[in-house]
Amino acid sequence: MFGPTRCLGWQGPDxxxxxxxxxxxxxxxxxxxxxxxxxxxxxxxxxxTLDQAVDLAIAHNHTLKATQTQVQQSQxxxxxxxxxxxxxxxxxxxxxxxxxxxxxxxILANVTEFDVGISYLFERGGKRHRRIDAAREATxxxxxxxxxxxxxxxxxxxxxxxxxxxxxxxLDLANQDLASFQxxxxxxxxxxxxxxISEGDLLKITVQLLQFQTDVSAAKVAKVQALASLxxxxxxxxxxxNYDVEGDLAYQPLQLNHEDLLLKALKTRPDLLAASEGIxxxxxxxxxxxxxGKVDVTGALTYSHLSDQNTLGVTVSFPLPIFDKNQxxxxxxxxxxxxxxxxxxxxxxxxxTDVNSAYEAFSGNREVVTLYTGGYLQQAKDSRDIxxxxxxxxxxxxxxxxxxxxxxxxxxxAYRQALANYLIAVEQLKEAVGSRTLP
Length: 439
Known about the structure:
This protein is α+β, with helices and mostly antiparallel strands. It has two domains: 15-44; 47-433, Outer membrane efflux proteins (OEP) (Up-down Bundle), CATH 1.20.1600.10. It contains ten helices and eight strands. Strand 1 and strand 2 (10-15) form a beta hairpin. The chain is elongated.
């Protein structure tokens, strides 16, 4: 039966159950289970993938958002460049009598002079058109510069994301090693009670457990710090405080062609495109400087009232280009064109260097990872297992067993670091090419 009820500010159905006690207990258990499921779901940390992390950084990183406003600022400069000169309005009144007895309509009409004029500056040499072109070219260059800032942010985000994955992988390894060595300690205690090992060996094994516990604590701190650093790139409010990353630190073999990478980088790197656009922008500034060297003409139309006479006057004025022909700015912008060309050459060299360096780092780290996966990981594990088996049966010393344990842990940590270096090298190669998609 269902009936309305009121309870502590919440209105809902009042549920009455009819039946035996077992049914009530069963239904109550189901309700409790649903409540616990809801709480667990509410407390579950949000997990993000690498692609999601990149999207969040682009959408919420404050430094990038501040840089993106440069495009809007440059577009506002386009609006300023397109403005035409304002006309000038002038008005004057001459021969106004000071004596009160002479201040009458007759004097004002026949003696006082009134002039009203309007003038306008006529720009010559296509100045306005050149200003608009220069402003648009500056905006295009700014867009590429903002894209280059976004490229750097994406790499930093991906690098930090991989750092979090490395910290999480190291934490998993530390927990596994601690659990495994804890079993060894438990077995050693049982052997000591049975008289199979000495108290000295038991103490050595027990003290060694401290290293594994320390590794777990250090790995936890490293992961928390890595997540905090990643959150700074994503935007502090873009993710909750208990967020985590999705995806394991795994080897992803790639077969890449060096020449294809170079060709794509020369086509897509935003800093190189910005430098190329800088050449066109410098040419626009040079054309504007030459246009500014042209003499402008000011035309004026004036109405005058003097001694009961109404007249119109037309005035044309322009400066004589004897000394100032804007020759200094023309020379400066001509040299700026050469500088922009050299900057583009330097940017091209930088792109080629970045791709070559990133490709070599990628190849070297890939080779290191394949060495580990090709047998060294398994050999380190087999060595530890054999040493442990032999030690438990008295065929090996305690020092040999502990040394094999340390070698296994060091090999696992080195492999995870090599794997992280490989993944970072892949991201660095993407940054060098200027695209998230490698050819």
